[in-house]
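Record type: ASSEMBLY
Status: queued
Input:
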Amino acid sequence: MSVRSPFNLTPPNRCPKVARMSETATQNLKRTPLCDAHQRLGARMVEFGGWLMPVQYTGIIEEHLAVRQNVGVFDISHMGEFWVSGAGAESWLNSLLTNDVRKCESGRAQYTLLCNERGGAIDDLIIYRIESEKFLLIVNAGNIERDFAWMQSHLSGDVTLDNYSERMSALALQGPKAAAVLDALAAGASQRSGHFGVGMERVGDIPIFAARTGYTGEDGFELICDAANAEKLWSAVLTAGAPFGIKPCGLGARDTLRLEMCYPLHGHELSEEITPLEAGLGMFVALDKEQFFGKDVMVAQKQNGLARRLIAFKMQGKTPPPRAHYAIAVGGKKVGEVTSGSLSPSLSIGIGMGFVETALAKVGTQIEVEIRDKFYGAMIEKKPLYKKA
Amino acid sequence: MTSKVPKNLKYTESHEWISVKGDTVTIGITDHAQHELNDIVYVELPPVKETYEAGDECAVVESVKAASDIYAPVAGEIVEVNNDLDTKPELVNEDPYGKGWMFKIKVRDNSELEELLSAEEYEEQLTES
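Status: finished
Output:
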């Protein structure tokens, strides 16, 4: 029986009821320092971007709701960390990234994209300006090598670029109680970091960067440390969070949380064949700044209009969950494709995102999602699909 | 986790259970399968009166992350489906052998029932994996 990972399903997104990865399948996967800790907690492990990661501990819906209502912690050590420093670091980064680095002050973070010359997204990432000419970049796990090779091939001047991905680990502490848990770990820390702020803190004797960023739509922090301290930090977070009812959360909940917020996932809503404008991320593309990779293509796209746009939709009534690669149709005619879809644990309805022809990509448009040869009604809605009451 | 494997039922390698009553069988998925799938959010049942061969995909169960096929263990005609699963798919998780039953088949060829696994054989398969 062939073994399949829920994250790499090819159409029609089928998975045997009981899927177990063979020893050989897991042998070649990378592991974060917390791999054993996850298994001790009873996590179900899956392959993700070449890594062995926890998809869930107690259940995706339970973990998702814990983050929305309380607090959860995710291992995000598989993500990549690059350090960029030196004279001219700001303008060098500005020539590679779409957002305007000049607008990112020291002690602040900025969401941005790395594009190729066709304007296609090589990756989306967050830069953290630690000092005036010292930046930490956190990139997607599956793109570490590609991002680093691209950036290195375009290195110029006195800028240094170092790949610290193996040497650093990170946890995402997310939810309404995340600030309280952080303060229990490092007194007053939550007061020192406003939204998208970043600063150095100490958890016991562990030095960390605490950034008020996240991928869930809740208040929260990404805690970045040396890989050697990852297990200690993870334990400290679970211990400090215990009185608050903290739950360890896996990639399954991470995906449903970001989908409700309509945050893109590279490989789904973004790729080297999709520009940030098509993905609705124009806010993070500074077309008025000096030359950067992809600028010309996107300037032209803005002038001529986009052929397709990323939409968000909600299914109508009880339907099977929409999933990536299902066709989107209007009047039975295919007009696009789903890029990500799931049951929304918060909304208790199927939700998703997908690309459709621009003319049809208006909020309020009735569409259909084709699931196993049947068409189910859905409505294009404004992003984000989930809003706090 | 030791899953429940009722002795009075028959089983398939693909984790369906079968309860035999005369020439009608009731089918669902096992405790082991529901535990592996975790939160079941949708169940697509076969149409009543539809006929299937043994091994045909005839139903789909969806968890948050993926859809999984359910196979007809024996050939026959669907005579009844559990409509409660339309509004409460979680019944499959809560009570896989009881309220989580999925559909009933009128068996065409009783000899096919002999090909099914006994509780002991299914349990052995579980410990091997």
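Annotation: Residues 34 and 231 of chain A are 6 Å apart (CA to CA).
Annotation: Chain A is about 20% helix and 35% strand.
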